[in-house]
DNA sequence: GCTAGAATCTCTAGCCACTAGAGGATCAAG
DNA sequence: CTTGATCCTCTAGTGGCTAGAGATTCTAGC
């Protein structure tokens, strides 16, 4: 277990520059180096990077991941805080889905109404140009 | 109709710095200036900015908006291209919705299974730490 | 005409989470 | 000992803005 960064990347699915970036922002610790100044990693980093990757895939922000990582280091603590981070993230995801759904509806309607003729008759252009009182006006 | 930038902002819902930014990236033209070097706008810019805002609200990228704007200037052209931009954007929105829904499912399950006890028993932390063969692994 | 305060100007830097590329050093296999 | 893959650091770029500094200009009231 003395992996170079490329091997760590292969095993975790996190790209090499991203690993270095995570080190830079302090999301993972700086590992030991070879005599020739190359990073060498162990099992700890595989786990940590996998954790980070899963959390990113679930859409957690880096700052939240920082907190979740800190919690995972304190197994006896209450998981109330982890729960609340996840909860509020779920709400955020719900908001995004709802917004996209409304948007999708408008898009689909617009496309549907397009008669595939000339620009001057096109609902797509028309809707964009003059859209004074539709739902999307109130999308944040 | 010789509006200062703040008034244009008020009428279109696009913030002042954003208007200047749009000018900088060439999304809108540089307007005439007063003797004191302040921008003054007319009806054209109101329409154009409204178009841009609507398109942004619908999630179109700036480069696509550029194309849509160019099309709207050629009323006799076919709207095939506008249609295809909108179509592919719709597909992209569908992809995003689907991705968020899968993600939401995982999040909700995770939270649901959390016993609200200690970190060492917490499904949230556990799922993140060891998540080897779940759907989210294959989310791009 | 004068003054105060609101609005405007330019410019730089920051946001997020990376990604790309230059230019050079190091490693492992043959 | 050479070759080619991998690694290093550093800077800059992505998208679509947003924030702030410090200076100027406009406008309304007196």
Automatic annotation (TrEMBL), chains A, B:
Top-level taxon: Bacteria
Keywords, in A-Z order: DNA-binding, Transcription, Transcription regulation
Keyword Repressor (UniProt): no
PROSITE patterns on file: HTH_MERR_1, HTH_MERR_2
Domain HTH merR-type: from-to ranges: 2-71
InterPro entries the UniProt entry points to: DNA-bd_dom_put_sf, MerR-type_HTH_dom, MerR_fam
Protein name: DNA-binding transcriptional MerR regulator
Organism: Aminobacter ciceronei
